[in-house]
Design brief:
Layout lengths: L12 E4 L7 E4 L8 E6 L2 E4 L22 E2 L7 E2 L2 H24 L1 H4 L3 H14 L2 H8 L9 H7 L22 H11 L7 E5 L2 E7 L1 H6 L1 E2 L5 E6 L7 E6 L10 E2 L8 H12 L6 H6 L13 H15 L30 H15 L2 H18 L5 H20 L6 H25 L8 H12 L3
Parallel strand pairs: 9-12
Antiparallel strand pairs: 1-2, 3-11, 4-8, 5-6, 7-8, 10-11
Helix pairs in contact: 3-6, 10-12, 11-12, 12-13, 13-14, 13-15, 14-15
Length: 458
Amino acid sequence: MGESEGIPYATRVRLAPHPTARNAAVSTSHLLAGSVIASVTALSTSLLPSNKGKRCDACHVLQSDDVKLRRCSGCASFWYCGTACQNKAWKAHHKKLCKSYNTFAASTEYQALTPHDQVDALLLSQMVVEHEFWRTARGTGSDNVHDPRATFLDLLKGPRAGSFELPLCLPRGTIDPEILTLAKELYSRFGNNNFVLHSHLNSYGHGVFPLASRLFNHSCSPNAVSKYVIRPSEPVLMQVVALRDISEGEEITIPYLDPALPCQTRQEALRVNYGFECRCRLCAFQQPIQSGPPPERGSDALQDMEAELRAFALGVDARSIRVPTVPGLYECMPATLHPTFHESYLPTLSELFSKTSHEGPYVDAVEAGLTLLAWYVLVYPPNYPQIGMHALELAKTTWNLLCTAGPDVSARESDVLEAQTRQFLDIAASVLENFGPEGDDGGPLEEIQLLKDALGIS
């Protein structure tokens, strides 16, 4: 495909040469932070087993007081928010899967799969039954980016293509050599091209978005992220959002995995699943670091190190927190903080915050949460959604501490807690408003407004 011809109007990028990857998606104009760079409709999606019966199997709308799901009268294992979704799914693929699904789901082959492989097995089956469309797509040429099936067939196969086969949810006697060949051809592109769907950063399914897979390369220090817009009776929409201002001609990258994972873990996952070594800014910094585990939790040494981390990343004054506005803060961090990159540090700190923020003592939760916020703004690029989500949890934690404070808490201490709550709320609002509405109704933006109302913030 040429460098820019044919890219759908719903994107603000063009393809350009890249020194190591197939292409680079570069901006066609100056983009402001929060801009939607691309909007891509799902070709096919499937829910995680844990979400079956809780969401519409077609549009993924969550069941609520206003949305009552209807069970398929045939298999009784698929749920829909209304006749529109049920009719679309029936015509697209469910008609051919309905009678076979329960036998398939109870089979030893299916039960032996991980939850994510179970999703992919159903996703693959949904795509395979549309074999007539795939036959047509093969003849349209790889340059036809307006045909999502042709685009999908033009994607690169994963490094593990052919090493594993999924069972298919098809009636006996219908799995002929043509179907098997198509299934292998499609599945060979699953591991390195499909996306995990999430609502408010909680995973709930898998989706196929061929154009997004074709356009955007990975970086652990990205300038954009993806979100998923759930619309009643409509396919899920993937939107790629700018984290910061992006110059015309600058490459737009998204993360294929969580940048907070240890560097070695990220590199191994990218090598196994995608077949490349990441050379981004974060990996270039972290790879040479040879640091042992941090001091034992509860020790004076760890308390000193975490105090240093908070001061370095957020400023010395806890009442006036500053959050970095440019990426790469880690490049000037003191070597004394390198143990925070050890694989044991983040899980332990996250667990401590989660436990104390729910069970108390809230004083310990605030300190752990503030340390976690410092680590997040150190590693993640500015406006990364996880920063906003954590800042919101921290705001709720300080608010809980303020509301449960006894008579022994002085007026000055109460003022400090309220000021901290406002600061955390400001950080959360700034980051999550940049990310924009996504996923299910309600969620973090609504929680932010509720907390603002409680604090009397207009």
